[in-house]
Design goal:
Homodimer. The protein has 18 helices and 14 strands. It is of the alpha/beta class. The strands form 3 sheets. It has an 8-stranded parallel beta barrel, surrounded by 8 helices. α16 packs parallel to α17. The protein starts with 30 loop residues before the first strand and ends with a helix. The structure holds acetyl coenzyme *A and 3-methyl-2-oxobutanoic acid. Acetyl coenzyme *A binds next to α1 and β4.
């Protein structure tokens, strides 16, 4: 069989040690580093043009990322030109530091430094591969040979940096493929590089520990990072950085646990573009922190702008369920979720901590609104449709009306095999619960006495009916008038009416639940005032009761057929 797990071996584990990360909690944002213009760019079918890089750069700066890997200037002309544009056109804000990547090869290092002439500050990021596979199969060298490459590269970096003393240099070293490297060798090779660079607490170097390929779980990465932090010499002269990839879908989790384990700096990309399954998504990790009450120190108030720039520059569309910012992540279709959201939102007060079921953050925080929160399809229940009617039309359905309407909404959605808008839901309600024929209200007059009296004029086809009745309100007076006229007793089981807006011009809506000859009937009507709406709702109920078969029942049979 081709599908054979025996082909694979687990990744190297760290030796037993006293790990502390499982007992820790995050309480601050890391140093964020954008890799969009390098790792993200090198993973594209068509790498970005200089113009696209410029656009992306502005977005990265706008979000507030303070360290930005801008490219591999010794590898390609557009990358070189872009770095020159940043420096010559003075595009780098005072508090932002650019970084560039280079291999341990002299001609590439020389060109890299040339590209940075005139910069105020820059990070030169040097790397070579260290894992067993890379050593044995790619470089065909032992540990010493691989260490020599790193030491030689570090020496060239130091030497070339000395030629440009006007630039404030920071050095970064990556034992590339760290995730698949034996931990003692990772530490040894990093210490060999430190011996060359001689970092101090005031002039630290960055040691970047990537899951170049994510080969194990995030807990394993956390162990690697904490073991490294506990054993690397001169820890206070080093900034420990991580750079996680998403091969197992755990890039964000790995970075998050690595922060617990002692890392201080995280390299990633906005929305996670990068080699293979991508780099760690900075937006997701930042929002993870935010939702735990930690300031991510990034401006994520307008993710739609980030999404637009990323899509335009990379040509890669975002999944609608992308964590935190996907188009559908604040939308609930399923009935019980909608019900819980609607109820929680009703309880939520503006000045208290956010406590809304199924919504881990307030969508308003990132420029989303509740428009999209609840959508109705065949998986939805009464809560969702009630939410939409209230939100879009100001209609407050009484609970019994919700129960009566919900099956029709569901049938309609099943019949259409699609989502229903609030307009459609309103239509379904009026279609099944409002019937203004054959009896229609022409006019009425109320008079006050010991009891309320009503004189009402109705049309029944071409015929005009004039009725009179008394009761303790307009509705009971009307049912009295109807009983006197038809001999049919209409009992009002429940009713509810309200205005549909704040001003005096607003229409009113009325719901009635009637018992007519033992039949329970719900009806609705809208009119210019509450009395007319209530009388029309009553007439609707009487019309529905007189219909054979009732339209509501007929509609169910139709859609089922
Ligand atoms: C995990 C990562 O993302 S690492 C970054 C990877 N990014 C990129 O590679 C994008 C930009 N790179 C490039 O455009 C090219 O690789 C260049 C221009 C830098 C170099 O191109 P080339 O000189 O043709 O070499 P190529 O990339 O094929 O590298 C292979 C050679 O470099 C050596 N090499 C590879 N990486 C390194 C390194 N980090 N340090 C020293 N030598 C290295 C290899 O051993 C090989 O040597 P050989 O020719 O003696 O067999
Ligand atoms: C060069 C390093 C940081 C890298 O991109 C990786 O290991 O994935």
């Amino acid at each position: 069989m081709a599908f054979d797990h025996r082909k694979y071996r687990p990744a190297p584990r760290v030796p037993a040690f006293d790990r502390t990360w499982p007992d820790k909690d995050l309480d601050r944002a890391p140093i964020w580093v954008s890799e969009d213009l390098r790792d993200g760019n090198q993973a594209l079918l068509e790498p970005m043009s200089v113009e696209q890089k410029k656009r992306f750069w502005h977005q990265i700066v706008k979000v507030g990322i303070k360290e930005v890997m801008v490219g591999f200037p010794s590898a390609s002309q557009p990358d070189y030109d872009f770095v020159r544009w940043l420096i010559e056109e003075q595009q780098i804000p005072e508090d932002v530091t650019i970084a560039v990547l280079v291999q341990c090869r002299e001609h590439l290092i020389e060109k890299t430094f040339e590209s940075l002439v005139g910069a105020k500050r820059a990070i030169v990021h040097l790397y070579n591969s260290t894992s067993t596979i890379q050593r044995e199969r790619v470089f065909e060298m032992d540990r010493d040979g691989i260490t020599d490459i790193a030491v030689q590269g570090a020496t060239w970096v130091k030497t070339y940096a000395e030629r440009y003393p006007e630039v404030e240099w920071c050095f970064e070293y990556t034992p590339e493929s760290f995730s698949s490297t034996e931990i003692d060798f990772s530490i040894a090779i990093c210490e060999a590089v430190m011996d060359v660079w001689q970092p101090t607490p005031d002039n630290k170097c960055i040691l970047n520990l990537p899951t170049t390929v994510e080969v194990a779980g995030p807990h394993h990465h956390a162990d690697q990072i904490e073991y490294f932090c506990q054993h690397i010499k001169n820890r206070d002269s080093v900034i420990v950085s991580v750079h996680t990839h998403n091969d197992r879908g755990g890039a964000v989790a790995s970075a998050e646990l690595a922060l617990l384990a002692g890392a201080e700096r995280v390299e990633g990309t906005l929305l996670g573009n990068g080699e293979r399954t991508g780099n760690m998504d900075i937006v997701t990790l930042a929002m993870n922190l935010y939702s735990q009450g930690i300031d991510p120190e990034l401006d994520l108030t307008n993710p739609d702008e980030i999404i637009q720039v990323v899509q335009e520059c990379t040509g890669i569309a975002m999944h609608p369920r992308h964590p935190w910012v996907g188009e559908m992540v604040y939308t609930a279709f399923s009935g019980s979720h909608q019900d819980a959201i609607r109820k929680s939102l009703k309880h939520q007060k503006p000045d208290e901590p956010w406590q809304v079921a199924y919504l881990p953050i307030d969508p308003h925080d990132i420029g989303r609104d509740y428009q999209a929160v609840i959508r109705v399809n065949s998986q939805s229940g009464k809560g969702g449709m009630a939410f939409l009617l209230e939100r879009d039309y100001g209609i407050n359905l009484p609970r019994w009306m919700m129960l009566a309407l919900a099956p029709y909404v569901q049938k309609e959605s099943e019949a259409r095999a699609s989502e229903l808008s609030s307009e459609m839901i309103r239509q379904v309600m009026f279609e099944h619960f409002s019937q203004q024929a054959p009896l229609a209200l022409a006019d009425y007059r109320l008079s006050k006495g010991q009891h309320e009296g009503i004189e009402v004029t109705l049309w029944e086809g071409a015929e005009t009916l004039r009725l009179e009745g008394n009761g303790n309100g307009a509705m009971s007076a009307f049912t009295d008038a109807w009983r006197k006229h038809s001999g049919v007793n209409v009992a009002i089981v429940d009713y509810s009416e309200h205005s549909l807006g704040g001003d005096s011009e607003a229409n009113a809506i009325a719901f009635v639940q009637l018992n007519i000859d033992g039949q329970r009937i719900c009806a609705v009507a809208e009119d210019s005032d509450t009395v007319s709406a209530s009388l029309k709702a009553l007439l609707s109920g009487i019309n529905i009761a007189r219909c054979e078969p009732q339209p509501a029942r007929r509609a169910i049979e139709d859609t089922t057929a």
